[in-house]
Write a structure and sequence with these properties.
The structure holds 2 protein chains of 2 kinds.
Chain A: H1 2-24, H2 40-53, E1 58-65, E2 71-77, E3 89-94, H3 102-116, H4 122-130, E4 132-136, H5 141-149, H6 201-213, E5 217-223, E6 227-230, H7 242-260, E7 265-268, H8 279-287, E8 291-296, H9 312-330
Parallel strand pairs in A: 3-4, 3-5, 5-8, 6-7
Antiparallel strand pairs in A: 1-2, 2-4, 6-8
Chain B: H1 2-21, E1 32-35, H2 39-47, E2 51-55, E3 59-63, E4 75-77, E5 86-91, H3 95-103, E6 107-111, E7 115-120, H4 122-130, E8 134-139
Antiparallel strand pairs in B: 1-3, 1-4, 2-3, 5-7, 5-8, 6-7
The chains are: A alpha/beta, B alpha+beta.
């Protein structure tokens, strides 16, 4: 009888624990809303729905987990999507920085456009047939969720730094030139680089993923300022093959401008200001593949990170041809 | 009684799960929220080597290894909401100024030829001013900034 009691206690405990954890993971129907912007739960659901409705060309997988154990979702778009073919790879990343909500929606909407226009649009069909496109719209889900629920201007991830402060700036946590100018060792700083390179599970997951797929081109979306930036960010010195990086960036700026007439300025990242330990410098140092930070709308600090919802679609629309151009370039 | 036991066991295991979900980094001296009544008390904290990260009308957030300095002042662990940042405009004359701004640790939002817009803790504002830069406060709390 005692054993049955203990079993009952354990069973009830498990039920309570499952209920408790579920309620703290913010995945339930009572999730907070970000209006027309996508929350983590919405991205999770919509990426899976997109893949489910187009299983021949789209598959969703997780590249790892965040500090708070959220999955870091990636959607792979390619014909014969479940095979590992010898095709060039393009990668789009979003939301290294939590408050940059538009940087989630633009890559997600690009994924949606690609999947829904296969066998309809000639260029899209060719890209999906001849390359592998990986889109990871939310690298920092914990920070994003915190930005939605608690602090709209939150930037970092949600690492407990152990001194009362939280968060590491994921885009200062990559190993190449980690600790250089434009990053901080202060835990409370918004550009805190973390205690060591790749200290964070989010950047570790991106590192392992990018090393595995070895992209021929990458775009990491941020906002704001309307810029197209390439290596180097840590120094004013030019990167090897700067002419190529610049020419591709200039074409992308032209493609963006051709949609709504909005200007994005192309240039070496350090011409804006020096920043060390970011994704683009790390990938360029590792592979030499053209990699870009695109700072999306708006142009200035008003409205800054709080881009009105009615600008989601135009921001996506103007960035689509630039992304398609870069994806097409790798299949040349 | 049985239900209470279930809840207690569930709570204990749940706490363990939560701590696994949010691993802490190596222990650091925690920041402290210290209440004060006069500028003299704040100055005493400075004199004792405390770094004043934030100074609000009734409290400061400090970082110090010398806890003796706050023994007679009411203090408590910080809450995230206590970490108030100002919205500032910084005037930059040249590339040297620009680099001081970039390396200061502030949350840089926008950099133009002669000004930068940023979110900054008081400690960073103080360091920028000590370096000779002009810093204007746009909003005392960047979370409540107004459209300009």
């Amino acid at each position: 009888m005692t054993a049955i009691k203990y079993l009952a206690r354990i069973l009830c405990s498990i039920i309570l624990i499952l209920f408790g954890i579920n309620s703290t993971c913010d995945n339930g129907p009572t999730d907070p809303t970000a209006g027309l912007y996508h929350t983590y739960a919405e991205i999770d659901a919509e990426l899976h729905a997109l893949a489910s409705s187009h299983p021949a060309i789209a598959a969703v997988s997780s590249i790892g987990k965040s500090v708070q154990q959220r999955e870091l979702w990636a959607i792979k778009i390619s014909n014969r999507v479940n095979q590992d073919e010898d095709e060039p790879v393009a990668v789009l990343l979003g939301c290294h920085h939590a408050r940059e909500w538009i940087s989630v929606d633009v890559p997600f909407l690009i994924a949606k456009y690609l999947v829904e226009n296969y066998a309809i649009d000639t260029l899209v069909t060719r890209l999906i047939d001849h390359s592998e496109i990986w889109i990871l719209p939310m690298i920092n889900p914990d920070g994003h969720q915190y930005s939605v629920t608690t602090d709209r201007l939150w930037r970092k991830n949600r690492r407990n730094n152990g001194d009362g402060t939280f968060g590491v700036d994921l885009n200062r946590n990559y190993s190449y030139q980690w600790g250089g100018p434009g990053s901080s060792g202060d835990t409370y700083s918004e550009i805190y680089r973390g205690p060591s390179p790749f200290s964070e599970p989010e950047t570790q997951a991106v590192r392992d993923f990018l090393q595995q797929v070895a992209p021929k081109a990458l775009i990491s979306y941020h906002n704001f300022s309307q810029l197209i930036l390439y290596a180097w960010g840590y120094t004013y010195s030019p990167a090897p093959n700067k002419a190529l990086l610049d020419s591709l960036a200039v074409v992308m700026a032209h493609k963006i401008r051709s949609v709504h007439g909005v200007n994005y300025t192309a240039g070496q990242a350090s011409t804006l200001y020096l920043a060390s330990g970011d994704t683009v410098d790390w990938l360029y140092a590792l592979l030499g593949s053209p990699a870009y930070t695109i700072e999306l709308r708006p142009a200035s600090s008003y409205p800054g990170f709080e881009l009105p919802e009615d600008q989601i679609q135009p921001t996506f629309a103007e960035n689509l041809p630039a992304a398609l151009f870069l994806m097409n370039w790798i299949t040349r | 009684m049985l239900r209470l036991n279930f809840l207690l066991v569930a709570w204990l295991i749940f706490i363990c799960c939560q701590s696994e979900q949010q691993p802490q980094q190596a222990a650091q001296r925690p920041l402290q929220k210290v209440y004060y009544q006069s500028e003299a008390e704040v100055q005493r904290l400075r004199d004792a080597g405390a770094e004043i990260i934030v100074q609000q009308p009734d409290y400061v957030i400090i970082k110090t290894d010398k806890m003796v300095a706050i023994q007679d002042l009411k203090s408590e662990p910080i809450r995230e909401a206590d970490m108030v940042q100002r919205l500032v405009k910084i005037y930059v004359k040249d590339s040297t100024d620009r680099q001081i701004v970039v390396n200061s640790g502030i949350d840089l939002w926008e950099m133009k030829n002669d000004t930068a817009i940023a979110r900054a803790y008081d400690i960073y504002i103080e360091k920028l001013r000590q370096a000779g830069l002009t810093v204007a406060i746009i909003s005392q709390d960047a979370r409540q900034r107004e459209e300009k």
